[in-house]
Amino acid sequence: MNVENKTIVITGGGQGLGRAMAVSLAEQGANFALIDLNEELLSESVALVEQAGSTAKFYVANVTNEEEVESTFKQIKADFGSIDVLVNNAGILRDGMLLKAKDGEVVKKMPLSQFQSVIDVNLTGVFLCGREAAVHMVENGTKGVIINMSSIARNGNMGQTNYAASKAGVVAMTVTWARELGRYGIRVGAIAPGVIRTAMTDAMKPEMRERLEKMKPVGRLGEADEIAHTVKYILENEFFTGRVVEIDGGLSM
Ligand SMILES: NC(=O)c1ccc[n+]([C@@H]2O[C@H](COP(=O)([O-])OP(=O)(O)OC[C@H]3O[C@@H](n4cnc5c(N)ncnc54)[C@H](O)[C@@H]3O)[C@@H](O)[C@H]2O)c1
User: Fold this and answer.
1) Does pTM surpass 0.85?
2) What pLDDT is attached to residue 252?
């Protein structure tokens, strides 16, 4: 897909990877609809996209709320005329062990609320936004692209029962949607990043960062631009669908 004048919706576009994707793709002249919970961060992202030469609008919405998602996508369609690309990027972490034991006795277990909060954003949010984007693409005859953000943690990771399960589910939905929506000319792909340099990793203790860097054959963390580059690859390569790109510097966990 050539994204010039196309409408790209990015959830979690207020900061981090979502913002980096928008700013990076802005050079190609797409229009952006950025969804997030935080209005202040969203307006900063819109200003950065506009500086980079594209049009952008923001929408404050919670991706876990069905009514908000439905009305937001309707509004985006009304504002821009079409929805060509969705990057399902909003996601959260609420790490913790399944249980903790002392002297053979379980002293703590992961509360259902901690498990559910991650499933709500990372899995239900992806489902709701993907469904609404697909509705508009099919009704409009748009041969669009949906990209879902998974993670290397999808293979299972210590302390991430909730996150790993959600990110594995995202890949399963990706393959399912590619098969179901291919008949409408819609492609669906997923990206599974390793550890990418963000405000969170910048704030880590140096020894923790060094340990993470050593786990990667490339010897460093990933850059947000390298994830944006992967988004561009999926958009441009018309033969890509139903698969996940692992972009993790060869990390072995
Ligand atoms: N940064 C990494 O190293 C890394 C690695 C693998 C996967 N990922 C995935 O990439 C995506 C982006 O990660 P990031 O590091 O930029 O995260 P981030 O925390 O910097 O940004 C996520 C954004 O999503 C928004 N968000 C959270 N809950 C929301 C909700 N209910 N409704 C609407 N917006 C909501 C947040 O406000 C935030 O702006 C996530 O899905 C994450 O799991 C990131």
Assistant:
1) yes
2) 66
